[in-house]
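Reviewer 2 asked us to include a model.

Predict the structure of this chain.
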Amino acid sequence: MSGATLHTAFDFLAWLAAALAGWLAARIAPTPFPLGASLRRDWLLVVILGAAIGAYAFGTANLWASGQAGVARSIEGAIFGGVMAVEAWKRANGVTARTGAALAAPLAAGVAVGRIGCHLAGLEDFTYGTPTALPWGHDFGDGVARHPVQLYESAAMAAFLLAYAALAPRSAFVRRNGFYLAVGFYGAQRFVWEFLKPYAGIAGPLTVFHLLSAALFFYAAAMIATDPQRARR
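Predicted model (structure tokens):
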């Protein structure tokens, strides 16, 4: 089976994992969605469009910055695009409710499973790590042992998912801010792994994804710090 076929299969599995995680989270740590049916449809459309645009825009930008031709997509770009699109839509429509709480577990599960597909796709996926002498370095077929950064990210988000599943049923703070905790953790761990990738820097040593990671982390930190229910205590 080709790397591209494996990647596509794991993309599908990632969606299934995200759906299952969302279903389970709704039962062990319910977080009611704060918008009515009509606004909910608009919100979902904005999420999908923003994520699609962000995935291809930032994935391709990083590819070109690294001297590669073609079009690429990125999960981080999708997260950033979806978040920014929703925040802009909320501001334009006067929506002040926080709408991401139910997405914490699906986000973590989807990334944890999807990144395995990136690893199995090999060199053609351009998500591999830099060379390493560490014993767990992986040879994708070119005779070079590389950091399996995709698996680092998968393991990190799986660990977040387990922590969220343990804490959310007992903590109203975690349930309210689960999405921001997931986004912030994603941004922080991704920022670290980017130093182990062969991408070209666009601001000194910092790549497109370093900047996106930092933006997601500070966005999440700001949202957690301004939690309105926390402020009322």
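Strands lie at 138-139, 145-146. Residues 37-65 form the longest helix (29 residues). We have added this to the supplementary material.
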